[in-house]
Design brief:
alpha+beta; NADH Oxidase; three-stranded antiparallel sheet; 7 helices; binds flavin mononucleotide; single chain
Length: about 160
């Protein structure tokens, strides 16, 4: 998002964090709230269209429908939110490769974002934010050493 007017309104719903407006772009990743059997069918129809293979995904469809049928509303939302973090990871890796800084953020009020961005009507709700842009020369944090646990502590090689 580059609309400064909307982004300015979002600051107060982002714990007053200014990177929501100061970064050149604000990525808002949203999850679907309407994942059901009909949505699975839409996805399967799309797969058939893209792959040109009508009727080839029956077993896959049944697996998807069975998977979501086993989840209650909260678990389904949680699952959908996790998918958003895959997109977030891809976005951050890509920005890093382009030497663009990014700041993943969970400090925001999802309901207010949904309201201001008109997401509810689209059956979406905000999952996570990621302002991104070229580094400011005045960024006092940029040159600080990165704080990371030792690789040996967080990676197990079996
Ligand atoms: C769950 C989670 C939520 C976060 N939310 C925010 C946030 O709302 N605002 C913010 O400036 N940083 C937030 N951060 C921290 C930054 O995204 C980032 O981790 C921090 O700037 C340090 O990154 P670096 O060590 O790669 O420099 C959050 C981090 C995590 C793990």
């Amino acid at each position: 998002m580059t609309n400064q007017e909307i982004r300015e309104q979002l600051v107060k719903h982002s714990w007053n964090q200014r990177q929501v407006t100061d970064a050149s772009h604000l990525l808002v990743i949203a999850l679907r709230t309407d994942i059901d059997e009909a949505w699975c069918d839409r996805f399967i129809a799309r797969a058939e269209e893209v792959r040109g293979e009508a009727g080839a995904f029956g077993a896959y469809r049944d697996m998807m429908v069975g998977f979501i049928a086993n989840l209650d509303a909260d678990a389904l939302k949680q699952w959908a939110k996790l998918q958003c973090y895959i997109a977030l990871g891809q976005f951050m890796t890509t920005t890093a490769m382009l030497v663009i800084d990014a700041c993943p953020m969970e400090g925001f009020v999802a309901d207010k974002y949904d309201e201001l961005l008109g997401l509810k009507d689209k059956h979406l709700t905000t999952a996570v934010l990621c302002p991104a842009g070229y580094r400011s020369a005045e960024d006092k944090y940029a040159e600080l050493p990165k704080v990371r646990f030792q690789a040996s502590e967080v990676i197990t090689h079996l």
